[in-house]
Write a structure and sequence with these properties.
Blueprint lengths: L6 E4 L2 E4 L9 E3 L3 H6 L2 H10 L9 E8 L6 E7 L6 E3 H4 L6 E10 H5 L2 H11 L14 H17 L27 H7 L12 E10 L2 H7 L5 E8 L2 H18 L14 E3 L3 H35 L6 E7 L1 E10 L2 E10 L2 E2 L18 E4 L7 E6 L3 H5 L2 E2 L9 H7 L2 H10 L3 E3 L3 H6 L8 H10 L3 E14 L1
Helix pairs in contact: 5-10, 6-10, 7-9, 9-10
The chain binds one DNA strand of 6 nucleotides through helix 9.
Length: about 475
DNA sequence: ATGTCC
């Protein structure tokens, strides 16, 4: 990216001043190195977001931002419905409520190592992964609607996991305002056999070891110590979320003119929050959030079953579950005034600071856990929300390493088999149904996650708590 | 991300 047009606010914050049809400035949080490596399209896309009706304060890009459909991945934007604000399907992303949860196991790395191969094989056998994968749960119409309304709460009631899991999930596991009747039959049909499946692309289930603690107090509150084994699950709402996104995107493009919305880019199709389509999308999108929460909950149950067999002394407790493709109604202070806003986070994690009422009581003094999934074979990080992040980007942080190379380019450069062999040599066991998928996800195709986390920390978006190193990875 | 193009 050409940084000569940007105003440097500080070493980790850069502004594109409002110009032309931009209603507000665009702000990118990154250090100079990340910024220079960032695709020019991120600046274009985030500037286009700043042109949408009802946008408040600024459009933001996180340190892991890269080119996406309409909105950049790693984009945050909030809209005021009272001010003509919009909701955008492309601003949430196709994989609605894609997210990651981390489970504590109570195990130390040494206990796990003797069983590493058995665990890798059993997880791969029990966790459905890959394009079009189907699971052990099959939903009829009635159960589909119950799942879409109930989320992880529905899953726990059906025997998948523990009641105590729910308090460690955003929205206590059930997104309010979901409207299953706004989800098309086609979307439901695609999902009926896909519950409890990882999917493909960058989705994974990873067994990890805590390799470094950065913040002792926060780590103690989160239950993390050096040498601990944890499990992280990254996946979303599968075919259902994709279908909802596709259908509403089309509908929003067709209706934009009727709502007097001039689209700077077709891919930024949106509808006023206060319109039939806006409300219908919000209902369907929230149902999609519940689908993703239920999906991760079922996968958690399957993971517990595998550990019970291979390492029966393990006790898997949910640390936290974050969604990084959402639009949520939140109250934020803007220029001294509290406003109800529709906050879009696409490839960005909610990061509420200490004291926020939505953070579970026993974690509230340190802030919300923010889980940053690394790429395959690289570290992941646990951060905590900060008090200052509300004024920086509506309490948001990055979500991962962010791609640095296209999938196509990655498959030309690497072969899945060799990527797996190299990682095996470093003690990391990869299991995947797709060699090509492994090549696409080669560590070299991603940005340096440590640099991304450092920029998020130094920029004040969140504070680093712990680093996790992979031991076993089931890759979609 | 995605029944990787109804």
């Amino acid at each position: 990216m050409d940084i000569s047009e940007l105003i440097k606010c500080n070493d980790y914050c850069w502004e594109i001043p409002a110009q032309g049809k931009m209603r507000v400035p665009a702000v990118i949080y990154a250090d100079e190195t990340l910024l220079q490596a960032m695709d020019e399209k991120v600046a274009q896309q985030i500037s286009n977001v700043a042109k949408l009706p009802g946008i408040v304060q600024a459009a933001y890009a996180m340190p892991d931002a890269h080119w996406g459909y309409g909105f950049p991945i790693g984009g945050v934007a909030a809209f005021d419905a009272e001010d003509g604000g919009v909701v955008s399907a492309g601003g949430v992303g196709f994989d609605i409520s894609c997210g990651v949860r981390t489970l504590l196991t109570g195990l130390k790395k040494q206990e796990l190592m003797a069983k590493q191969t058995a665990l890798a094989d059993m997880l791969f056998y029990q966790i459905p992964a890959g394009v079009g994968s189907t699971g052990c749960v099959h939903l009829n119409h009635q159960e589909m609607d119950a799942m879409l309304q109930g989320g992880a709460r529905w899953a726990v009631r059906r025997g998948f996991g523990l009641e105590s899991d729910l308090e460690r999930i955003e929205e206590q596991g059930c997104m309010a305002g979901a409207d299953a009747s706004q989800v098309s039959e086609q979307a439901k049909k695609r999902q009926k056999d896909e519950m409890g499946t990882l999917g493909s692309g960058n989705h994974y289930l990873e067994v990890q070891c805590v390799s470094r603690i950065f913040d002792q107090r926060a780590a103690a509150a989160f239950g993390l110590q050096e040498g601990d084994v944890v499990v992280s699950i990254h996946c979303g709402s599968r075919g259902l979320g994709h279908q909802i996104g596709t259908e509403f995107l089309k509908r929003m493009v067709l209706e934009a003119g009727r709502h007097g919305i001039e689209l700077p880019d077709r891919e930024l199709a949106c509808a006023p929050v206060n319109s039939a389509t806006g409300q219908a999308y919000l209902g369907a999108m929230r149902a999609g959030i519940n689908c993703a929460l239920a999906n991760r909950q079922i996968l958690t149950h399957l993971t517990r079953k595998v550990f019970a067999e291979i390492l029966p002394q393990a006790e898997l407790r949910l640390l936290y579950d974050v969604s990084h493709n959402t639009c949520k109604v939140e109250t934020h202070e803007v220029e001294g005034r509290k406003r109800k806003l529709f906050v879009h986070r696409k490839g960005a994690t909610r990061a509420f600071g200490p004291g926020h009422p939505a953070v579970p009581g026993d974690l509230r003094s340190v802030g919300q856990p923010v889980i940053i999934g690394g790429s395959m074979g690289t570290a992941s990080y646990i951060l905590a929300g900060t008090a200052g992040s509300e004024q920086l980007a509506y309490s948001s942080a990055c979500h991962g390493a962010g791609r640095a190379m296209s999938r196509h380019a990655a498959t030309k450069r690497w072969r899945g088999r060799e990527v797996m062999d190299v990682l095996a040599g470093r003690g990391i066991m990869i299991r995947s149904p797709s060699q090509r998928g492994v090549a696409e996800e080669a560590p070299g195709a991603y940005k340096d996650v440590a640099a991304v986390v450092e920029a998020a920390d130094a920029g004040g978006l969140a504070t680093t708590v712990a680093r996790l190193e992979p031991l076993v990875c089931v890759k979609g």
